[in-house]
Design brief:
single chain; 297 residues; mainly beta; five-stranded antiparallel β-sheet; 1 helix; globular
């Protein structure tokens, strides 16, 4: 763990950003990454897993002791991950081109590695719904080069958003995005937000039973988008090239938390869900904020 800190710079873009603040400094918890990604918090264990993709390792930050240790290496070039309602980590493996679940006994279950007999591209980010289903994006970043995966051929021919469920075949729920990346449900799970890193947009869909409908642009920015999270008021927090953008549910950019490097992803953690963890290129940051992450249903 480092003891370095940098000033927290909040920039208001809309009056509704008033009151969204936090500590005056961001703490740097780790600073030895190449491209950090995939932060996911375990409320039961009070720890955060995050990925250093090019170094093919998963790291574990212990919230109580402050230690950062290697969780697994090699790790299949893991990228995004989430925690399901049972407290199990579900991860996207770029290198192995699959979605896996880490069981409570330490074993690994493969949830998806192919669609219609063809290998997935390189699953990127994932969310778990309260009904037990798992939704994930599948762009091609992990097969374009050997930097964060293995250079390989795209078999499916499209970059999709998928829904996995234990009682149904893997299903495409969105196929109109260029490079779908981060995704997050609204607190009541009636909406699904998906970023497109190539188009630099956020698209929002209505969730109707097991399908996505009425996709429309929610936001766009030259800074681009990667991982996203929702707070308990339905505001969207997005990792961008400028730091973290905060959007009202109506799509208005409320404000920005500036960072000195590109932010890849973020996660709300802590006992009160008000610790904002940010993976930003080489560093893992944390700041206590005046909002809480969305509760799981």
């Amino acid at each position: 763990m480092t003891n370095d800190r940098i000033p927290a710079v909040f920039e208001r873009r809309d009056d509704r950003f008033e009151g969204i603040r936090g500590d005056t400094e961001l703490r740097i918890l780790f600073d030895d990454g190449r491209w950090l990604e995939g932060p996911s918090y375990s409320p039961q264990g009070r720890f955060l897993l995050f990925s250093d993709i090019p170094n093919d390792r998963v790291l574990r930050y212990d919230e109580v002791s402050g230690r950062v240790d290697v969780w697994s290496q090699p790790a299949g070039f893991e990228n995004g991950r989430t925690v399901d309602p049972q407290g199990r980590f579900i991860s996207c493996q770029h290198g192995n081109r699959r979605i896996v679940r880490r069981e409570h006994d330490g074993s690994t279950t493969v949830l998806a590695d192919a669609y219609n007999g063809l290998a997935l591209n390189s699953p990127n980010d994932v969310v778990a719904r309260s009904d037990g289903s798992v939704w994930f994006t599948d762009p091609t970043y992990g097969i374009l080069t050997d930097y964060e995966g293995h250079r390989s051929v795209e078999q499916i021919g499209s970059r999709n958003v998928y829904r996995w469920a234990p009682d149904a075949p893997l299903a495409v729920v969105a196929d109109t995005l260029t490079q779908p990346n981060g995704l997050a449900f609204s607190p009541d799970e009636t909406l699904l937000y998906v970023t497109d890193s190539e188009l630099r947009t956020v698209t929002v869909f209505d969730v109707v039973r097991d399908e996505l409908q009425n996709g429309r642009e929610f936001a766009s920015s030259p800074a681009g988008y990667d991982g996203i999270r929702l707070d308990d008021r339905g505001r969207l927090w997005a990792a961008t090239g400028e730091g973290v953008h905060v959007y009202d549910p109506d799509g208005t950019l409320l404000g920005v938390l500036r960072l000195p490097e590109i932010a890849a992803n973020l996660e709300f953690g802590g006992p009160q869900r008000n610790l904002l963890y940010i993976t930003a290129t080489t560093r893992l940051y944390v700041i206590r904020v005046t909002v809480e992450g969305a509760k799981r249903l």
